[in-house]
Design brief:
elongated; four-stranded antiparallel β-sheet; alpha+beta; 16% strand
């Protein structure tokens, strides 16, 4: 599974025995894989400051998770032609996310534990805010480029009625620079090819004989040229429409066609040039943001454990990885029963004696007598 439960209980003898009991039950019942989660000895400060910090860390936790999910989605969008390789680019310090979480170590160099907790939280907040700012600017530029390119490509993929014709026609298909003659492009339904060949010369006066040529086809019809005198254009269009032939409004402009082709080439080149640097930036900063997020989780466990269990600081944090989704309810029941003594009054009101395993009374309720945080690694769900 791609989720973890990060919990803590007091570090006295009774609760260390409770943790061992939890490990035994969850292991025998194949409910979860449990490991110790090491958290440094931080400078506590005042309890009032911890209360305010608790609220700020809760908001920062939500922001960090949202940011890394957006970054993961950006990797998907950038790697549009290689989506099967997305996961291998979503790493934390070179390791897959599960390995990083299960082997987490506090980064003393980046976030010195001797600093006040508020300062550490502020460093994390500023780091994530800068990553978000850079993410917005970098992805906005790439998205704009991608959108412009897609719009140009759409023009080349529609049917003959809507698509650009600049990559279909050539200079040789037209009578150009003539004061009297003009070449029109006409879309003819496939079943009407024979009718077109028989009638196009007589649809109007002054149509040049044998001037039609099929230059492109799609599933519905073909694009034909026809040359006529300029002064009969309107009459020819009317007669063509009456016979279900459609004159495409197109006049050959070599400079405009060249500009379109150069624009497409430029956009393709720009996208290729931006792809590598953007993907590298996303990989590096996704790692940084994810690492920061897990440090925030560790800070929250420390702060909430001190607020819940009091001073002096003495608690043990444990990381649980549920083995499967269907076992999470039973795992919750085991934890609630093992640690019910941490809050007897609240626990007594919700424990259900009808659910039992040997030596344990379990709860069906979503109740946390212990400190609990959730880590969801399903970033692309």
């Amino acid at each position: 599974m791609s989720e973890f439960w990060l919990i803590s209980a007091p570090g006295d003898k009774e609760n260390l025995q409770a943790l061992e009991r939890m490990n035994t039950v969850t292991s025998k019942s194949n409910l979860s894989y449990n490991t110790k989660f090491t958290i440094p000895d931080f400078k506590v400060g005042t309890l009032d400051s911890l209360v305010g910090l608790s609220d700020e860390l809760g908001k920062l936790d939500i922001f960090a998770e949202s940011l890394i999910k957006r970054m993961a989605q950006s990797v998907v969008e950038v790697m549009e032609d290689a989506k099967g390789k997305v996961q291998e680019n979503l790493l934390a310090n070179g390791a897959d996310l599960t390995s990083f979480v299960t082997h987490f170590e506090w980064d003393m160099a980046k976030y010195p534990a001797k600093q006040p907790l508020v300062s550490i939280a502020d460093t994390l907040a500023k780091q994530l805010a800068q990553i978000e700012t850079d993410l917005k600017s970098r992805t906005a530029a790439y998205s704009a480029l991608k959108t412009n390119l897609e719009n140009l490509e759409k023009k080349s993929t529609g049917n003959l009625f809507t698509r650009t014709l600049s990559d279909i026609v050539s200079k040789e298909d037209f009578v150009l620079d003539s004061e009297y003659l003009i070449t029109l492009l006409v879309i003819v339904p496939k079943p009407s090819y024979a009718q077109w060949q028989k009638t196009y010369e007589s649809l109007s006066d002054m149509v040049v004989p044998r001037s039609t040529k099929l230059i492109a086809e799609d599933n519905e019809g073909g694009l034909f040229t026809v040359t006529l005198f300029r002064k009969v254009i309107d009459d020819f269009k009317t007669k063509a429409r009456e016979n279900k032939f459609t004159v495409r409004e197109f006049y050959y402009d070599e400079k405009e066609i060249k500009r379109e082709r150069e624009e497409m080439t430029r956009l393709l080149s720009d996208k290729k040039q931006q792809y590598g640097p953007l993907l590298r930036w996303l990989k590096v900063n996704f790692s940084e943001a994810f690492i920061a997020w897990i440090h925030i989780k560790a800070l929250r466990v420390f702060v909430e454990s001190v607020l819940r269990y009091g001073l002096p600081v003495n608690f043990q944090a444990v990381l649980l990885q549920p083995h499967k989704k269907s076992s999470t309810k039973r795992l919750r029941e085991v934890l609630n029963s093992v640690f019910r003594h941490l809050d007897e009054v609240a626990a007594a009101s919700i424990l259900d004696a009808s659910v039992e395993i040997p030596g344990l009374q379990l709860s069906n309720q979503d109740y946390f007598p212990y400190v609990y945080f959730h880590i969801d690694l399903g970033l692309l769900d």
